[in-house]
Write a structure and sequence with these properties.
about 400 residues, alpha/beta, four-stranded antiparallel beta sheet, 14 helices, globular, binds 4'-deoxy-4'-aminopyridoxal-5'-phosphate, Aminotransferase, pyridoxal phosphate
Length: about 400
Protein backbone atom coordinates (compact mmCIF):
# COMPACT_ATOMS: atom_id res chain seq x y z
CA UNK A 1 0.00 0.00 0.00
CA UNK A 2 1.34 3.44 -0.80
CA UNK A 3 1.92 6.03 1.87
CA UNK A 4 -1.30 7.88 1.02
CA UNK A 5 -3.38 4.78 1.88
CA UNK A 6 -5.58 4.20 4.92
CA UNK A 7 -2.90 5.41 7.30
CA UNK A 8 -2.80 8.80 5.54
CA UNK A 9 0.04 10.58 3.81
CA UNK A 10 3.43 10.86 5.46
CA UNK A 11 3.51 14.62 4.94
CA UNK A 12 0.36 14.94 7.06
CA UNK A 13 2.50 13.68 9.94
CA UNK A 14 4.87 16.64 9.73
CA UNK A 15 4.80 19.14 12.55
CA UNK A 16 2.96 22.35 11.74
CA UNK A 17 6.24 24.27 11.72
CA UNK A 18 7.84 22.10 9.01
CA UNK A 19 4.82 21.48 6.80
CA UNK A 20 5.35 24.52 4.59
CA UNK A 21 9.13 24.20 4.27
CA UNK A 22 10.51 24.49 0.76
CA UNK A 23 14.07 24.07 -0.49
CA UNK A 24 16.59 26.47 0.98
CA UNK A 25 18.01 29.25 -1.19
CA UNK A 26 21.44 28.62 0.35
CA UNK A 27 21.21 24.97 -0.69
CA UNK A 28 20.42 26.11 -4.24
CA UNK A 29 23.45 28.39 -4.24
CA UNK A 30 25.73 25.54 -3.21
CA UNK A 31 24.28 23.26 -5.88
CA UNK A 32 25.07 25.70 -8.70
CA UNK A 33 28.52 26.32 -7.16
CA UNK A 34 29.27 22.62 -7.60
CA UNK A 35 28.38 22.59 -11.31
CA UNK A 36 31.66 22.62 -13.24
CA UNK A 37 31.73 25.34 -15.84
CA UNK A 38 29.45 27.67 -13.83
CA UNK A 39 31.35 30.59 -12.31
CA UNK A 40 29.94 30.67 -8.80
CA UNK A 41 29.12 34.18 -7.66
CA UNK A 42 26.36 32.60 -5.56
CA UNK A 43 28.18 30.84 -2.73
CA UNK A 44 29.56 32.79 0.21
CA UNK A 45 32.46 30.41 0.74
CA UNK A 46 36.02 31.47 1.49
CA UNK A 47 38.59 31.68 -1.29
CA UNK A 48 40.62 28.47 -1.63
CA UNK A 49 43.83 30.53 -1.51
CA UNK A 50 42.75 32.10 1.81
CA UNK A 51 42.43 28.76 3.63
CA UNK A 52 45.15 27.87 6.19
CA UNK A 53 45.85 24.57 4.42
CA UNK A 54 49.54 24.17 5.35
CA UNK A 55 49.02 24.93 9.05
CA UNK A 56 45.98 22.63 9.29
CA UNK A 57 47.88 19.78 7.62
CA UNK A 58 50.84 20.19 9.95
CA UNK A 59 48.84 20.46 13.20
CA UNK A 60 46.24 17.80 12.31
CA UNK A 61 48.95 15.20 11.71
CA UNK A 62 50.10 15.50 15.32
CA UNK A 63 46.84 16.13 17.10
CA UNK A 64 45.52 12.66 17.95
CA UNK A 65 48.95 11.71 19.38
CA UNK A 66 49.61 14.90 21.35
CA UNK A 67 46.01 15.34 22.56
CA UNK A 68 44.42 11.91 23.12
CA UNK A 69 41.32 13.67 24.50
CA UNK A 70 40.79 15.11 21.05
CA UNK A 71 39.23 11.77 20.05
CA UNK A 72 36.80 11.76 22.99
CA UNK A 73 33.51 13.37 23.86
CA UNK A 74 34.27 16.72 25.40
CA UNK A 75 32.60 19.45 27.40
CA UNK A 76 29.19 19.95 25.74
CA UNK A 77 29.53 23.71 25.68
CA UNK A 78 32.99 23.54 24.14
CA UNK A 79 36.66 23.13 24.97
CA UNK A 80 37.22 25.25 28.12
CA UNK A 81 40.54 26.70 26.86
CA UNK A 82 38.91 27.78 23.61
CA UNK A 83 35.94 29.30 25.44
CA UNK A 84 38.28 31.15 27.80
CA UNK A 85 40.22 32.52 24.86
CA UNK A 86 36.95 33.75 23.32
CA UNK A 87 35.76 35.18 26.64
CA UNK A 88 39.05 37.10 26.92
CA UNK A 89 38.58 38.39 23.37
CA UNK A 90 35.04 39.49 24.28
CA UNK A 91 36.28 41.25 27.44
CA UNK A 92 38.92 43.02 25.39
CA UNK A 93 36.50 44.03 22.60
CA UNK A 94 33.66 45.17 24.83
CA UNK A 95 35.25 46.29 28.09
CA UNK A 96 32.68 44.11 29.90
CA UNK A 97 33.44 41.33 32.36
CA UNK A 98 32.81 38.11 30.46
CA UNK A 99 33.07 34.70 32.15
CA UNK A 100 34.05 31.54 30.28
CA UNK A 101 30.59 30.25 31.19
CA UNK A 102 28.98 32.91 29.01
CA UNK A 103 30.54 31.37 25.89
CA UNK A 104 29.13 28.34 24.10
CA UNK A 105 30.90 26.75 21.14
CA UNK A 106 28.37 26.05 18.39
CA UNK A 107 28.27 24.25 15.06
CA UNK A 108 28.92 27.43 13.16
CA UNK A 109 27.17 30.70 13.86
CA UNK A 110 24.23 29.06 12.11
CA UNK A 111 23.61 26.73 15.07
CA UNK A 112 23.90 29.77 17.31
CA UNK A 113 20.92 31.25 15.48
CA UNK A 114 18.98 28.04 15.99
CA UNK A 115 19.76 27.91 19.73
CA UNK A 116 18.82 31.58 20.12
CA UNK A 117 15.46 31.03 18.44
CA UNK A 118 14.83 27.93 20.57
CA UNK A 119 15.59 30.00 23.64
CA UNK A 120 13.67 33.15 22.75
CA UNK A 121 11.00 32.71 20.14
CA UNK A 122 7.45 31.63 20.82
CA UNK A 123 5.23 31.33 17.73
CA UNK A 124 3.97 34.78 16.79
CA UNK A 125 6.72 36.72 18.58
CA UNK A 126 7.94 39.69 16.59
CA UNK A 127 11.59 39.48 15.59
CA UNK A 128 13.06 42.27 13.52
CA UNK A 129 15.69 41.65 10.87
CA UNK A 130 17.62 44.07 8.72
CA UNK A 131 16.29 44.73 5.23
CA UNK A 132 17.77 42.89 3.37
CA UNK A 133 18.46 40.10 5.87
CA UNK A 134 20.73 37.06 6.12
CA UNK A 135 18.78 34.16 4.55
CA UNK A 136 20.02 31.69 7.15
CA UNK A 137 18.46 33.82 9.90
CA UNK A 138 15.18 34.09 7.99
CA UNK A 139 15.11 30.34 7.58
CA UNK A 140 15.51 29.65 11.30
CA UNK A 141 13.07 32.39 12.31
CA UNK A 142 10.44 30.90 10.01
CA UNK A 143 10.99 27.48 11.53
CA UNK A 144 10.21 28.85 14.98
CA UNK A 145 7.20 30.69 13.52
CA UNK A 146 8.38 34.14 14.45
CA UNK A 147 6.49 37.09 13.04
CA UNK A 148 9.44 38.48 11.09
CA UNK A 149 9.50 42.20 10.35
CA UNK A 150 12.24 43.47 8.03
CA UNK A 151 13.18 47.11 8.41
CA UNK A 152 16.33 48.87 7.21
CA UNK A 153 18.90 49.11 10.01
CA UNK A 154 22.33 49.47 8.38
CA UNK A 155 22.75 52.12 5.68
CA UNK A 156 20.32 54.94 4.98
CA UNK A 157 18.00 56.02 6.52
CA UNK A 158 19.05 53.91 9.49
CA UNK A 159 16.82 53.38 12.48
CA UNK A 160 13.75 55.52 11.77
CA UNK A 161 11.50 52.62 10.79
CA UNK A 162 12.75 50.46 13.66
CA UNK A 163 12.03 53.24 16.15
CA UNK A 164 8.46 53.55 14.88
CA UNK A 165 7.99 49.79 15.04
CA UNK A 166 9.27 49.24 18.59
CA UNK A 167 7.05 52.06 19.82
CA UNK A 168 4.03 50.38 18.27
CA UNK A 169 4.41 46.75 19.36
CA UNK A 170 6.54 44.52 21.55
CA UNK A 171 9.63 43.21 19.79
CA UNK A 172 11.42 40.16 21.17
CA UNK A 173 14.72 40.61 19.38
CA UNK A 174 16.50 42.35 16.54
CA UNK A 175 18.87 40.32 14.38
CA UNK A 176 21.55 42.10 12.43
CA UNK A 177 24.96 41.70 10.87
CA UNK A 178 26.67 44.91 11.98
CA UNK A 179 29.84 44.63 9.88
CA UNK A 180 29.98 44.01 6.10
CA UNK A 181 26.58 42.40 6.20
CA UNK A 182 25.40 39.41 4.29
CA UNK A 183 23.94 40.25 1.79
CA UNK A 184 24.17 44.05 1.69
CA UNK A 185 27.87 44.54 2.51
CA UNK A 186 26.76 47.45 4.73
CA UNK A 187 28.24 48.39 8.09
CA UNK A 188 26.47 50.22 10.89
CA UNK A 189 27.91 53.63 11.75
CA UNK A 190 28.92 54.21 15.37
CA UNK A 191 25.92 56.54 15.69
CA UNK A 192 23.56 53.81 14.49
CA UNK A 193 25.13 51.37 16.97
CA UNK A 194 24.62 53.77 19.87
CA UNK A 195 21.03 54.49 18.80
CA UNK A 196 20.21 50.79 18.42
CA UNK A 197 21.68 49.96 21.84
CA UNK A 198 19.72 52.82 23.40
CA UNK A 199 16.50 51.56 21.79
CA UNK A 200 17.15 48.05 23.14
CA UNK A 201 17.67 49.45 26.63
CA UNK A 202 14.54 51.56 26.41
CA UNK A 203 12.17 49.03 24.83
CA UNK A 204 13.65 45.85 26.30
CA UNK A 205 14.34 43.83 23.16
CA UNK A 206 17.44 41.66 22.73
CA UNK A 207 19.98 42.27 20.00
CA UNK A 208 21.40 39.31 18.09
CA UNK A 209 24.77 40.58 16.90
CA UNK A 210 25.71 38.15 14.13
CA UNK A 211 29.25 39.03 13.16
CA UNK A 212 31.21 36.57 11.02
CA UNK A 213 32.84 39.22 8.79
CA UNK A 214 33.99 41.94 11.24
CA UNK A 215 37.69 41.06 10.97
CA UNK A 216 37.64 41.14 7.18
CA UNK A 217 37.81 44.93 6.71
CA UNK A 218 39.66 46.29 3.71
CA UNK A 219 40.78 49.56 5.27
CA UNK A 220 41.59 49.85 8.97
CA UNK A 221 40.30 50.49 11.53
CA UNK A 222 37.85 47.66 12.22
CA UNK A 223 34.23 48.79 12.54
CA UNK A 224 33.59 49.74 16.16
CA UNK A 225 32.22 49.52 18.75
CA UNK A 226 30.59 46.09 18.95
CA UNK A 227 26.97 46.35 20.07
CA UNK A 228 27.83 44.13 23.02
CA UNK A 229 30.05 46.96 24.30
CA UNK A 230 27.04 49.30 24.34
CA UNK A 231 24.30 47.20 25.86
CA UNK A 232 23.90 44.25 28.20
CA UNK A 233 21.00 42.99 26.08
CA UNK A 234 23.18 41.57 23.30
CA UNK A 235 23.83 37.97 22.29
CA UNK A 236 26.92 37.83 20.08
CA UNK A 237 27.54 35.24 17.40
CA UNK A 238 30.97 34.71 15.93
CA UNK A 239 32.41 32.22 13.48
CA UNK A 240 35.72 30.73 12.45
CA UNK A 241 34.27 29.94 9.02
CA UNK A 242 35.36 33.06 7.21
CA UNK A 243 38.77 33.76 8.74
CA UNK A 244 39.92 30.14 9.28
CA UNK A 245 37.88 27.46 7.50
CA UNK A 246 34.18 26.58 7.36
CA UNK A 247 34.69 22.81 7.54
CA UNK A 248 35.64 23.29 11.20
CA UNK A 249 31.93 24.18 11.65
CA UNK A 250 33.05 26.21 14.64
CA UNK A 251 31.08 29.18 15.80
CA UNK A 252 30.56 30.74 19.19
CA UNK A 253 27.75 32.37 21.08
CA UNK A 254 28.34 34.79 23.94
CA UNK A 255 25.29 35.49 26.04
CA UNK A 256 24.56 37.74 29.03
CA UNK A 257 25.16 35.60 32.15
CA UNK A 258 21.43 35.56 33.01
CA UNK A 259 20.76 33.62 29.80
CA UNK A 260 23.93 31.56 29.46
CA UNK A 261 22.76 28.43 31.31
CA UNK A 262 19.83 28.07 28.93
CA UNK A 263 22.27 27.86 26.02
CA UNK A 264 24.39 25.21 27.73
CA UNK A 265 21.29 23.04 28.16
CA UNK A 266 20.05 23.62 24.62
CA UNK A 267 23.46 22.82 23.17
CA UNK A 268 23.58 19.58 25.13
CA UNK A 269 20.16 18.56 23.87
CA UNK A 270 21.07 19.49 20.30
CA UNK A 271 24.25 17.49 19.80
CA UNK A 272 26.26 16.83 23.00
CA UNK A 273 28.93 19.23 21.79
CA UNK A 274 31.18 20.06 18.86
CA UNK A 275 33.98 17.81 17.69
CA UNK A 276 36.81 17.90 20.26
CA UNK A 277 39.26 17.14 17.46
CA UNK A 278 38.31 20.22 15.47
CA UNK A 279 38.26 22.41 18.56
CA UNK A 280 41.77 21.29 19.51
CA UNK A 281 42.86 21.97 15.96
CA UNK A 282 41.43 25.49 15.93
CA UNK A 283 42.78 26.19 19.41
CA UNK A 284 46.26 25.17 18.23
CA UNK A 285 45.92 27.50 15.23
CA UNK A 286 44.85 30.36 17.48
CA UNK A 287 47.71 29.74 19.92
CA UNK A 288 50.44 29.58 17.33
CA UNK A 289 52.26 32.92 17.58
CA UNK A 290 51.41 35.23 14.70
CA UNK A 291 49.35 32.66 12.81
CA UNK A 292 45.92 34.23 13.21
CA UNK A 293 47.26 37.71 12.58
CA UNK A 294 49.00 36.58 9.40
CA UNK A 295 46.02 34.53 8.26
CA UNK A 296 43.61 37.44 8.79
CA UNK A 297 45.89 39.93 7.05
CA UNK A 298 46.19 37.59 4.09
CA UNK A 299 42.43 37.06 3.95
CA UNK A 300 41.82 40.83 3.97
CA UNK A 301 44.21 41.28 1.05
CA UNK A 302 42.67 38.36 -0.86
CA UNK A 303 39.10 39.64 -0.55
CA UNK A 304 40.03 43.23 -1.20
CA UNK A 305 41.73 42.30 -4.45
CA UNK A 306 38.71 40.23 -5.44
CA UNK A 307 36.26 43.03 -4.62
CA UNK A 308 38.31 45.54 -6.60
CA UNK A 309 38.55 43.23 -9.59
CA UNK A 310 34.83 42.48 -9.65
CA UNK A 311 33.85 46.15 -9.28
CA UNK A 312 36.20 47.08 -12.09
CA UNK A 313 34.92 44.29 -14.33
CA UNK A 314 31.29 45.29 -13.68
CA UNK A 315 31.97 48.65 -15.32
CA UNK A 316 31.03 46.78 -18.51
CA UNK A 317 27.42 47.48 -17.41
CA UNK A 318 28.03 51.17 -17.97
CA UNK A 319 25.79 52.25 -15.10
CA UNK A 320 22.97 49.76 -15.71
CA UNK A 321 23.97 47.85 -12.58
CA UNK A 322 24.41 49.91 -9.41
CA UNK A 323 26.02 48.81 -6.17
CA UNK A 324 27.36 50.03 -2.87
CA UNK A 325 31.10 49.26 -2.57
CA UNK A 326 31.50 47.01 0.49
CA UNK A 327 34.25 47.97 2.94
CA UNK A 328 34.95 44.33 3.82
CA UNK A 329 33.49 40.84 3.76
CA UNK A 330 32.41 38.68 0.82
CA UNK A 331 29.47 40.38 -0.91
CA UNK A 332 28.54 42.99 -3.46
CA UNK A 333 24.87 43.96 -3.26
CA UNK A 334 23.75 45.24 -6.63
CA UNK A 335 20.62 46.58 -8.29
CA UNK A 336 19.28 46.23 -11.80
CA UNK A 337 17.08 48.92 -13.33
CA UNK A 338 13.85 48.75 -11.33
CA UNK A 339 11.66 47.12 -13.97
CA UNK A 340 13.96 44.09 -14.24
CA UNK A 341 13.70 41.00 -12.06
CA UNK A 342 16.93 39.40 -10.80
CA UNK A 343 15.30 35.96 -10.92
CA UNK A 344 14.83 36.35 -14.68
CA UNK A 345 18.43 37.53 -14.91
CA UNK A 346 19.55 34.39 -13.07
CA UNK A 347 17.76 32.19 -15.59
CA UNK A 348 19.69 33.94 -18.39
CA UNK A 349 22.89 33.94 -16.36
CA UNK A 350 22.78 30.19 -15.80
CA UNK A 351 22.66 29.64 -19.56
CA UNK A 352 25.80 31.81 -19.69
CA UNK A 353 27.23 29.68 -16.88
CA UNK A 354 27.48 32.21 -14.10
CA UNK A 355 25.46 32.10 -10.87
CA UNK A 356 24.45 34.57 -8.16
CA UNK A 357 21.67 34.83 -5.57
CA UNK A 358 18.63 36.92 -6.53
CA UNK A 359 17.71 39.47 -3.87
CA UNK A 360 14.30 37.86 -3.30
CA UNK A 361 15.99 35.32 -0.99
CA UNK A 362 16.84 38.03 1.52
CA UNK A 363 13.42 39.42 2.36
CA UNK A 364 10.70 37.83 4.49
CA UNK A 365 8.10 39.80 2.50
CA UNK A 366 7.83 42.55 -0.14
CA UNK A 367 11.14 41.62 -1.78
CA UNK A 368 13.12 43.99 -3.91
CA UNK A 369 13.08 42.01 -7.16
CA UNK A 370 15.73 44.14 -8.82
CA UNK A 371 18.42 43.35 -6.22
CA UNK A 372 21.06 40.63 -6.43
CA UNK A 373 23.95 39.38 -4.32
CA UNK A 374 27.22 38.79 -6.09
CA UNK A 375 29.83 37.12 -3.97
CA UNK A 376 33.41 37.68 -4.99
CA UNK A 377 34.82 35.45 -2.27
CA UNK A 378 34.91 32.03 -3.86
CA UNK A 379 35.08 31.93 -7.66
CA UNK A 380 38.64 31.72 -9.01
CA UNK A 381 40.17 35.19 -9.02
CA UNK A 382 40.98 35.00 -12.71
CA UNK A 383 37.35 34.12 -13.55
CA UNK A 384 35.80 37.26 -12.03
CA UNK A 385 36.23 39.39 -15.16
CA UNK A 386 34.77 36.64 -17.31
CA UNK A 387 31.90 36.32 -14.79
CA UNK A 388 31.08 40.01 -15.14
CA UNK A 389 31.13 39.67 -18.95
CA UNK A 390 28.77 36.68 -18.85
CA UNK A 391 26.46 38.51 -16.46
CA UNK A 392 26.42 41.47 -18.78
CA UNK A 393 25.50 39.29 -21.78
CA UNK A 394 22.69 37.80 -19.71
CA UNK A 395 21.54 41.29 -18.79
CA UNK A 396 21.54 42.46 -22.42
CA UNK A 397 19.32 39.54 -23.41
CA UNK A 398 16.95 40.25 -20.53
CA UNK A 399 16.78 43.99 -21.15
CA UNK A 400 16.38 43.50 -24.92
CA UNK A 401 13.25 41.37 -24.60
N1 LIG B 1 25.62 34.56 9.85
C1 LIG B 1 25.93 35.17 8.71
C2 LIG B 1 25.59 36.60 8.55
C3 LIG B 1 26.54 34.46 7.67
O1 LIG B 1 26.83 35.10 6.52
C4 LIG B 1 26.85 33.10 7.84
C5 LIG B 1 27.51 32.29 6.76
N2 LIG B 1 26.90 32.34 5.52
C6 LIG B 1 26.51 32.51 9.06
C7 LIG B 1 25.92 33.27 10.05
C8 LIG B 1 26.78 31.06 9.33
O2 LIG B 1 28.14 30.83 9.41
P1 LIG B 1 28.76 29.51 10.01
O3 LIG B 1 29.57 28.89 8.92
O4 LIG B 1 29.61 29.95 11.15
O5 LIG B 1 27.63 28.64 10.45
Amino acid sequence: MNSAGAAGSLRARLAARTRGLGPSPIGEAFRTAGDPGVIPLAAGSPAPEALPTAAVTRIAAELARTHPHALQYGDTSGLPELRELLAARHRHGTGRPTATGQVVITHGAQQGLDLICQALVDPGDTVVVDRPAYTGALQVLRLYRADVAAVPIAGDPGLERLTVLVRRRPVKAVHLVPDFANPSGRTLTSGQRAALAALAERYGFLIIEDNPYGELYFTPPAPRPPLSALSGRVITLGSFSKVLFPAARLGHLTAPSELATVFHTLKQAADLGNSALLQHLVLALLREPGLLRGQTARARAVYRERRDLLMDALRVFDGALRWEPPGGGFFLWARLPEHLDARALLAEALTEKVSFVPGTAFYPSAPDHSALRLSYSYAPLDSLREAAGRLHRAYLRLAGR
